[in-house]
Each structure stands twice: as structure tokens, then as C-alpha cells.
């Protein structure tokens, strides 16, 4: 089969209700099936990782999500071949499904009924409450038979709260106050405590710390937003989503966000569902949860009845018919049942993400540096490294461990195509949201400990910010098969964090960096002003040194003391060498300093051993630069942010 130019692409959408959260566009030729391996698409029937784009993001940096799925596109008469041979480890399970709905008769009474003002849904309906689905009205479709009776089976997604997969989590609740024109602020009589959407929420003092978690702080109101000095933001009326940090006479509603951090102490696998399988919510159009709260007025539970196919192979697509009414008023409606793919084999893994360092990151602060930290997402869990201050080449030296990761693929499939880990680098800011610096997708190395263990070495991964490459990450990822196998010993610890194992991390040695900072040339204006009193700051491996300040660039463009030296712990291997960050500052006044330009350069081309340097000095003329261990002073130059050229000196470092 040869794909035609008119064959449409495949769009994969991530939905939440009627809202589109993310999408990806997949060429049909990449999943097209053919018996000829040379003509078959590379992703046909193969579980792959697809990156979703956020349709509401204008910057192109936001990630709409990551989906791991298998797509197959071919003729209908070849569908059995795909199901029996390519996906033989999967089984198709189909259920007839109906939700039983109830409302509370009176708040606090504990009695539930199916009659009342709040009962806006049929007694039995679909998940959205739009279609009446009585259990007795279902008829099995062609090619399928009912297997067993109706059973209560809650939706597994309800068991996952907002903190699922996190080791740190911020509880939040909004305090709401109202007033009449010209009056004073009082607590809102209807819903004094709300969530971010304005729905009723549990009061601040009644929010408890879940089992396995511990509070890390006390309740404080959030000032890291567009709010006034007491954390309030103002609006005209309830439901009006435009908030202002400044109070006006016409503002009648205000709110402030209270936050409290809690940290995971012990992962506890617990059953959060009630014995009867009910899910609760304040109203039917709000989000349901497993644990009943005081503000909940409605509840529902899911009834399911399994169906089995009457023939082997890939069965026909089922369509359930539901009859309602009697006689001439009888109406037949059709509903598509829930279809699930269940794996016949499941294995437990442990991922060890060794994040050693990054280099050549983007400067996120006005100081010319960043306060970077890394966030690693793998499967359904997320962890982050510690935050480092004022550096473009951070050395985290940290291992993040994702334990008890359950993958449904057979072992050969996982070994050939494991799930990818997503690493994102952010710049932490004291006020406002963290700034995105770059992202990379990393494929882990699958290791079976029973077959022996050889540490996976670190490698450089290119970070990307949109379509622009921005820095590199030095890391390695090991995915251990944990099924009844003894794993290698845990990495050493530093405080509460795991370090990169000694067999994985590079060998360090003391390195001296020598810089001859001659001066600046061809500097044009910066922000419509002339650069007059510049200074140069050099940073490498957390160590920094600052040159002398020029008195007047136009009168004398050279520095008084050009020779600068500092020591840093650098890897012995040239492959892992750190980058040198160079920042040009201009002092505009007694306390005002601006960043004119910053660049980053590798030390590999400037490195020399002490023995080779001594040999070169012995042969050099006494008045030459080589006699001092230096090379051409025009060794590196960069284009400054104002369009001019800033000529920096060559550096030489010795082992």
C-alpha cells in the first residue's frame, strides 16, 4: 500500500469535558500497516510517546501533555492481523455502563433520595447526566453477550487526588469577603471559602493533612501574585473572573489565597472508596471525589455489566440499544459502551534519574544568571531537584528515584521502546511563576538486575525551548526490572537527597582557570545609552571572579588588572568539562547596575595540562604571551545585545 498525498493526518486530542487541553498531529503514513516491512509505517501498532501541544499557548513553550499509545491504520479486513499478532498481549473488555444518581434530602441529615430541586439528572444516566440509562433497558448488540450481572465498580480516576505522583504539594483555599457600596468588608454569607474556580470548598481550619504526609509550614496568604499588601484581589461581583490588585469604590467582592505546603513522608496504598462505591460532589456539574465532605449535596456510583464476544478475533464494534417508554411512546436510543484494553502481563520497575549538571542555560534574572531547578516527569509521577542560586551551569549531583512503576508492556516491548522521561528546567523567582528554560525527552536504559548490572554513563542531552536549542543536560536514566529481583544498592545520600553514584559521576580534580581580561572594543549604545563604566564577571562551577571596573571606556578601553585566576573542581574528562559564563555589567550610577551582555564558552578548546604548558613556556620568547601561558587575546568575541561587538580575552586553565 502506498499512501496518497490526499490521505488526511490523524489528530489526537486530550479532552476534559468539552475543553481541549492538548493535541498532536500524526501523519497517516507513519502508522499505515503493510505486510511488507519496508512499506509499513515505523509507528504502526507500536506503543510510542506522543507530545501534545497546548492549543491556548501562544509562546509555544507550554507542554499540553504526553500520551503513550499504539496507533494502527489499515484495511478493515486486516484488523484481525493487527489484534492477534501485534497486540496479542492485550485483551479487549467491554462494559455496559450506567450511573445511579442521588441528592441529599437535607444538609447534615445523612439521608439520600432521588427527588428534589437539585435532582437535575435521571435516576440512572450516563456520566454526563444527559441520557437516561435504566439498567433493565439495555440490550446486547450483535456479536456480543452479557456475562454476569450488574456490579458496582467505581471509576479508578476518582481515587487520584490533585497530589497524586507528587512528593511536595501546596494545599490552597480562597477566603472570600463581600460588602455593600460604601460599607465595610465582611465574610461572604454564602460561600466564605472557595476553590480557584469559585466553587464551595472546605474551610481552611478543617483541611487536614492526609495519611503519609506531614505539614512543612503554617497557613500563609499568598503574596506572589498580583495582589495588594495583604494578599487581597478585588472584583465587581461574584462570578466575574477579572480580578484587580487595587481596591476601588465599585469593588464589592474580594478574595485572597491561603497556601500551606505538605511533604510526602511515606507512600501509602489505600482504598479511598466507600464500601458502596459512591462518589460525592457539591453539585452534579462539579468535580466528583471519593471522600464525602460537609459541602457535598449530590452523589453517584457507577454500575457496570461485562460483555463477551461470541467469536474469536477482533469482534465488531458494539452499539448498545436502550429502550424507554411503553407502547407508542417507546423510544430506542443508542449508546456506545466503554471499551477497555487490558494487558495480560504487568511488570514493576524502578527508574533512577541521575541528574548531574547542566550548562549554557538561559539567563532568567536581571543579574545575568538563573536560579535553576529540574523537574522530571515519568509515567504518572513527578519529582524535582533542589534549587541552585545564581548560576548558568548548575551542578545538582542528585538522583531522583521513581519506585514501583507498573508497566503493562511485555518485556521485549519495554526493552526496545521504554517510556520516555521528560525533564524540564525552570528558573525560580521570588515573585511570580517560575520561568521555563528548556525541555528534553530522555529514553531510559532498561536493566534486568538478574542478568548483571553495568552502570550507565552520563551523556549530554540537548535542551530545547520551543524550536530553539538552549543549553545541555548531563544525565543518565536507568530503568530496573523489579519483579522479584534484588536491585543494586541505593546511591549515597547528601542530607535528604540521593547523590549520583560514584560509578556514574565523573571524576573531579582541582582546576585553575586563568583569564587575561584585556578590555572591550567596538561597544555601541545599550538601551540608547553609552556604556561608560563596564566590568566583567566570570563564573564556572559555582565559583566567580569579577574584573576591575573601568573608569571611562571611551578614554581607556583596557582593564587595569587584566590577570585573573580562580580554582574550580572540574571533571577530569574533557567530555564533561564545565562552561565558563561571562557577564558584562555596566554601572550607571551609585547603585544601578545593568546587564549589557552575557555569553558562555566551553573550556575544552582552552584546556592544557601543566606539563605541556611548562614545555611551551620554555620554548617561547621571553616577551611573548606564550611565556605567560597565554594565547591570542582575540581568542573569543561575541555579539552583544546592543548590536556591537564585545571583545573578551582568551582564558587558559591548567590541570
From TrEMBL:
Designated name of the protein: C2 domain-containing protein
Q: Which domain of life is it from?
A: Eukaryota
SUPFAM superfamilies linked: C2 domain (Calcium/lipid-binding domain, CaLB) (SSF49562)
Where, subcellularly, is it found? Answer: Membrane
What InterPro entries would the database entry show? Answer: C2_dom, C2_domain_sf, C2D_Ferlin, Ferlin, Ferlin_B-domain, Peroxin/Ferlin
Q: Which UniProt keywords apply?
A: Membrane, Repeat, Transmembrane, Transmembrane helix
Topology within the bilayer: Single-pass membrane protein
Biological process (GO) annotations? membrane fusion; plasma membrane organization
Q: Where is the C2 domain?
A: 325-461
Span list, region Disordered: 606-655
Biased composition (Low complexity) is annotated at 637-655
Instruction: Report the GO terms under cellular component.
Output: membrane
Its lineage reads: Eukaryota, Metazoa, Ecdysozoa, Arthropoda, Crustacea
Amino acid at each position: 500500500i502506498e499512501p496518497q498525498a490526499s490521505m488526511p493526518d490523524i489528530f489526537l486530542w486530550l479532552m476534559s469535558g468539552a475543553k481541549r487541553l492538548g493535541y498532536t498531529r500524526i501523519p497517516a503514513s507513519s502508522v499505515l500497516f503493510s505486510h511488507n516491512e519496508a512499506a509499513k509505517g515505523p509507528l504502526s501498532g507500536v506503543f510510542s510517546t506522543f507530545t501534545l501541544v497546548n492549543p491556548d499557548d501562544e509562546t509555544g513553550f507550554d507542554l499540553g501533555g504526553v500520551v503513550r499509545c499504539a496507533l494502527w491504520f489499515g484495511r478493515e479486513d486486516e484488523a484481525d492481523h493487527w489484534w492477534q499478532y501485534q497486540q496479542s498481549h492485550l485483551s479487549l473488555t467491554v462494559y455496559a455502563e450506567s450511573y445511579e444518581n442521588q441528592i441529599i434530602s437535607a444538609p447534615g441529615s445523612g439521608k439520600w433520595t432521588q427527588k428534589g430541586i437539585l435532582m437535575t439528572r435521571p435516576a440512572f444516566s450516563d456520566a454526563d447526566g444527559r441520557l437516561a440509562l435504566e439498567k433493565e433497558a439495555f440490550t446486547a448488540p450483535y456479536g456480543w453477550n452479557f456475562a454476569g450481572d450488574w456490579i458496582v465498580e467505581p471509576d479508578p480516576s476518582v481515587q487520584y487526588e490533585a497530589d497524586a505522583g507528587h512528593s511536595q504539594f501546596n494545599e490552597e483555599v480562597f477566603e472570600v469577603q463581600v460588602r455593600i457600596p460604601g460599607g465595610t468588608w465582611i465574610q461572604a454569607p454564602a460561600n466564605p471559602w472557595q476553590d480557584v474556580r469559585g466553587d464551595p470548598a472546605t474551610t481552611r481550619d478543617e483541611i487536614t493533612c492526609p495519611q503519609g504526609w506531614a505539614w512543612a509550614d503554617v497557613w500563609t496568604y499568598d503574596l506572589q501574585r498580583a495582589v495588594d499588601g495583604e494578599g487581597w484581589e478585588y472584583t465587581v461581583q461574584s462570578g466575574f473572573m477579572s480580578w484587580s490588585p487595587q481596591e476601588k469604590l465599585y469593588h464589592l467582592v474580594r478574595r485572597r489565597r491561603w497556601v500551606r505546603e505538605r511533604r510526602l513522608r511515606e507512600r501509602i496504598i489505600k482504598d479511598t472508596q466507600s464500601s458502596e462505591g459512591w462518589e460525592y460532589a457539591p453539585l452534579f456539574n462539579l468535580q466528583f471525589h471519593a471522600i464525602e465532605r460537609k459541602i457535598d449535596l449530590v452523589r453517584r456510583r457507577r454500575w457496570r455489566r461485562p460483555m463477551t464476544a461470541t467469536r474469536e478475533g477482533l469482534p465488531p464494534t458494539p452499539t448498545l440499544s436502550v429502550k424507554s417508554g411503553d407502547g407508542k411512546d417507546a423510544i430506542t436510543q443508542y449508546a456506545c459502551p466503554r471499551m477497555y484494553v487490558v494487558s495480560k502481563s504487568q511488570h514493576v520497575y524502578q527508574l533512577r534519574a541521575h541528574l548531574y549538571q547542566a550548562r549554557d542555560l538561559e539567563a532568567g534574572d536581571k543579574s545575568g544568571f538563573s536560579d535553576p531547578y529540574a523537574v522530571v516527569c515519568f509515567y504518572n509521577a513527578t519529582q524535582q531537584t533542589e534549587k541552585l542560586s545564581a548560576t548558568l551551569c548548575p551542578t545538582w549531583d542528585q538522583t531522583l528515584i521513581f519506585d514501583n512503576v507498573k508497566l503493562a508492556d511485555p518485556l521485549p516491548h519495554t526493552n526496545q521502546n521504554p517510556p520516555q522521561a521528560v525533564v524540564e528546567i525552570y528558573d525560580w523567582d521570588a515573585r511570580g511563576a517560575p520561568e521555563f528554560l528548556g525541555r528534553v525527552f530522555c529514553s531510559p536504559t532498561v536493566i534486568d538486575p538478574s542478568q548483571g548490572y553495568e552502570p550507565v554513563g552520563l551523556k549530554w542531552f540537548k535542551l530545547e525551548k520551543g524550536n530553539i536549542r538552549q543549553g545541555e543536560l548531563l544525565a543518565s536514566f536507568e530503568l530496573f526490572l523489579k519483579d522479584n529481583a534484588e536491585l543494586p544498592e541505593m546511591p549515597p545520600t547528601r542530607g535528604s537527597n540521593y547523590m549520583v553514584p560514584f560509578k556514574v559521576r565523573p571524576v573531579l580534580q582541582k582546576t585553575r582557570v586563568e583569564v587575561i581580561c584585556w578590555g572591550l572594543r567596538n561597544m555601541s549604545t545599550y538601551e540608547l545609552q553609552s556604556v561608560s563604566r563596564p566590568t566583567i564577571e566570570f563564573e564556572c562551577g559555582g565559583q566567580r571572579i569579577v574584573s576591575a571596573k573601568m573608569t571611562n571606556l571611551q578614554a581607556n578601553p583596557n582593564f587595569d588588572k587584566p590577570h585573573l585566576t580562580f580554582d574550580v573542581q572540574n571533571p577530569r574528562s574533557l567530555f564533561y568539562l564545565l562552561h565558563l559564563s561571562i557577564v558584562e555589567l555596566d554601572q550607571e550610577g551609585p547603585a544601578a547596575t545593568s546587564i549589557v551582555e552575557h555569553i558562555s564558552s566551553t573550556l575544552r578548546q582552552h584546556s592544557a595540562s601543566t606539563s605541556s604548558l611548562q614545555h611551551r613556556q620554555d620554548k617561547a620568547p621571553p616577551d611573548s604571551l606564550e611565556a605567560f601561558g597565554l594565547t591570542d587575546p582575540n581568542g573569543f568575541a561575541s555579539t552583544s545585545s546592543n548590536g556591537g561587538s564585545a571583545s573578551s580575552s582568551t582564558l587558559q586553565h591548567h590541570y
